[in-house]
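To: structure subgroup
Subject: Chain for Friday's discussion

All,

I'm putting the inputs and outputs inline so they're searchable in the archive.
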Amino acid sequence: MLVSIIRDITERRRAEDVLQATEEWFAEVFQSSPAAMTITTVEEGRFIHVSDAFLTLSGYTRDELIGKTSMSLGSGRFRRTASGR
C-alpha cells in the first residue's frame, strides 16, 4: 500500500518571500538612517540591534553593545567620541 500526500505551499512560499523582502528593506533603512536608533528587549532593555549612526554617536562598537544594557556599560552615559561631542 502506498499513501502520498501532496500539499500546495504556493501561498506560504509567497508569504515567506514577502517577509524576507520586508526584513531586508527594514535592515537597509535601519542601518542607513542618519538617526541614531536601537532595538532593545522590553524586559531588560538589552541591545539587540544598533544603527551605525548610534555607534558613531555613542562611541561604542557593535560588539560592545549587543546583549548589554546601557546601565551595564557604566553610568548609562555615552563615551565621548573622537570629535569631542
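Points worth raising on Friday:
The longest strand covers residues 47-50.
The mean pLDDT is 86.

D.
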